[in-house]
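I'd like us to work through together how a protein chain folds, taking it slowly. To get us started, please write out a protein record for me. Go ahead whenever you are ready, and we will take it from there:
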Amino acid sequence: MQTGTKIRVRNLSVRFDKKAVLKTVNLDVYEKSVLGLMGPSASGKSSFISVINGMINYEENGSFEGEVYIEGFGLLSTKTDDVALRKKVGTVFATPIPLPRSIFENVAFGSRLKGIRKRSELHAIVEESLKKAFLWDEVKNRLSESALKLSGGQQQRLCLARTLALQPEIILLDEPCSGLDPISTAKIEEALSELKTDHTIILVSNNTKQIARASDFVAFFYMGELVEFGPAVGVFTNPEQKLTEDYVLGKFG
C-alpha cells in the first residue's frame, strides 16, 4: 500500500436491484487529510460512504464487488469484524439526531457503553470532544440541559462531538451542513481544519464552494463513475475533464 494511504479502493462496484450506483471505482484516501466528494444527486457519493462505514452490508437488494481496505483491514469480506470497524470509522449524517438526553450524556453515551464509569474521566472526554467540535464555549454552562434545546447547527456539532468521543481514525460526513446557517457551517469547516491533524476525513457535499474551502483532495462522481480525482486546488483551477469543469462552473448539477 502506498505510504500515507489510509483507505484503498480498487474496482469497487455497487448495485441496488441490479442498477449500478458505483462503477469500478479506484481511489486512495490519504491519511490526515480531508477528501471532498462532490457530484450531482444520485452520483454515488452516499453509496461510497455506506461502503466505508459498513452500512452497505445491511442494505436490502444490494450487491457489491471489488476491494476496500483500511490499512489492510478488508471491508467487503464476510469475515469483516463490525465492532472493529465501528472503532475505526465514525459517521455524521445530514440530519442531526441527538439523543433525548442531556448534552453531557449525549457525548458520554459511547464512552459509557465502553465501560467508562468514572465521572472525572467522562467529563474530560466530553470537554475535549466538545472543544474539538467548536461547541464547548456555547454549552459549557448548560451540560445538564436537554440536547433537544440546542439549535440545528449546535445539534450537528454535538453529533460530531459524540462521534469524536469514540476516537475514530476516520470521520465520514454526509452533507453535514445541509440546511445549516452560514455561521454554523463556518464552525463545522473550522472544526474539520483542526481535526485533520489527527483524523482522516471524507466530506460529502453538494456545495462545491464548501468542497473547495474544506478539502485537500477532491473526487468528482457522476452517474456512479469517478470522473476525476486529485488535489483540490488542481481540480478547481485546472480540471482534467470537461465534465468536471462544467460542474465546478455550475453548468449542471
Summary: The two ends are 34 Å apart (CA to CA).
